[in-house]
Specification:
The protein has four helices and no strands. With 144 residues, the chain is mostly helical. The chain has one domain. The model has no long low-confidence stretch (mean pLDDT 91).
Length: 144
């Protein structure tokens, strides 16, 4: 059993996936609070917008490690979500700061439902990728 760079990449991805699961849960709870009128949309968007770029940076960072390690299958599995993140950020509403959520439009029923669905889909993807990273880490450690 040897510790390789690929094993290191999967360990980092496993830890980062845990953070991404936390971010997805945070987004789902925040949108649920907006849906039930528990929080103000301006305050909620001020809490959510600073988390967008760190989420994207964490996801892209371990995929860059996959690129350097030559883990093409893992990189290929994450490419659609990276493409979605880039597309979503390039087509975001015009705002003064970084982020995706505009307080004036977030309370629209269609926008709120889309954000909730996006949060649930990301949560599912991050949970599946967490277990994939766990399996791949064990497989790489045992096979090398």
């Amino acid at each position: 059993m040897a510790f390789t760079f690929a094993a290191f990449c999967y360990i980092v991805a496993l830890i980062f996936s845990a953070f991404l699961i936390f971010f997805a849960i945070w987004h789902i709870i925040a949108f649920d609070e907006l849906k039930t009128d528990y929080k103000n949309p301006i305050d909620q968007c001020n809490n959510l917008n600073p988390l967008v770029l760190p989420e994207y940076a964490i996801h892209i960072s371990y995929n860059i490690l996959y690129l350097f390690a030559g883990q093409w299958g893992s990189l290929l599995l994450n490419t659609p979500l990276i493409a979605y993140h880039v597309h979503r950020y390039l087509h975001r509403p015009v705002m003064s700061g970084p982020g995706l959520y505009d307080p004036t439009t977030i309370m629209n029923a269609s926008e709120l439902n889309r954000a909730m669905k996006e949060g649930w889909c990301k949560l599912g993807f991050y949970i599946l990728s967490f277990f994939y990273h766990l399996y791949s880490m064990i497989y790489v450690l045992i096979s090398s």
